[in-house]
Amino acid sequence: MVDLPALNFAKPEEDCVPIWLAEAKAFTAALKAPEAEPDLPPEALRFAAATGFEAKNGRLLWFVTPEGRPGAIFFIDGSAQADPFQLGALAGLLPPGAYRFASPPVRPDLAALAVLLGGRLYARYKNPREAPRLLAPEGIDAAAIETIASCIALGRDLINTPANDLGPDELEAAIRAVAERFGASVEVVRGEALEQGFPLIHAVGKGSPRAPRLVELRWKPERARKLALVGKGVCFDSGGLDIKPESAMGLMKKDMGGAATALAAAAMIMAADVDASLRLLIPIVENSVSGEAFRPGDVYPSRKGLTVEIGNTDAEGRLILADALALADEDAPELLIDFATLTGAARVALGPDLPPFFTDDDALAADIARHGAAVNDPVWRLPLWSAYDAKLDGKIADLTNAPAGGMAGAITAALFLRRFVAKAKAWVHFDVYGWTPAARPGRPEGGEVQAARLILNLAREKFGAAKLR
Predict the structure, then answer these.
(1) 232: annotated active-site residue
(2) Could you say which of 244, 370, 381, 391 is catalytic?
(3) Which of 161, 232, 236, 247 is deepest in the core (most CB within 10 A)?
């Protein structure tokens, strides 16, 4: 059986260095009146006062106890706007070893997760520094946090892997490995069957020597309530014949970030034994330039029967998602969710850290926002503005994949996808970035899995679940 990446807490029997938490302003005041902070070690206060230490958010104060043992104080921002992952910064500040919180974090579950995720760097080609090990804080479900961290690490690793080592074959293998881990089945459609049944996926991928395919994972198919996840799996996006400029192509290994996110979410849902029949659909292609590549102006049928005029070959993600969504929709799932690194317009509107989501279901939107805030997996709702729907009308086909004008690009892309969903009781589209441009606590620079943790909590609440394992 294949295991997920291992992210584990320190063992209780290890000799753990204590770390106290303090607000900078309160600590500075305590230097003049040590009795005001009775929970902090007095030797630390004396040491800071003697050395002129300046307490600031994110700094670490090391000191030695009277018994000659090390201890540390980490200074935090206690304001309402503080990052719930701020304690993840410890992963980069502490030397290798075992540590424990001597004072309790406000959200020990998020603090522990942030330290695990902050210490896990991508290591396929370069060995990073050894990460410190944290003893799981009291009151958290340590096994569940380790499982969530491992699933996120899997998704990050896939996004970080360059396209020469992560093409359609390798992404399919990763899906198969997760399926094996949880006893799920996998079926793959490729070749003539793909061309006939999923013509848009085939059209986008046929320009590459690495064959396109649709990978389907099924878990607990006998369960009555149905949950479907779809993830955009473009292993590299050159833009096709509408080729991207160099500045826009450098990060296109991450264009399978939607697939990585969907796979990470599926792994967590299976680990939690969510009481639903799970169907994961990953259309996998490489958008390449060749004599076989699809062209601007071409017209292709879709699985749903709608014809699509190619306005731009660099708007390929919505094409492959359309066929996959149409298949998922045929099953009339209770909830259908797709993830895709779909538009630059989403990043212009909200930046890299706040993925937009789209749904016509107001109650579902409220639940998504609530769970995102609860687990520090932030998202923001944008409208499916139906007045823009006419922009999708093709000149010689039912639809165009690239409306003229370029405005409201994230919205028109979502509206395009909505054309392929009819039977699902609820549908939501996440336009994720899949990348952390500059390291932040709990989020190293590189591939990022956005919205998957909130979907885990949403699925557990909506369908019911056993304990994460």
Answers:
(1) no
(2) 244
(3) 232
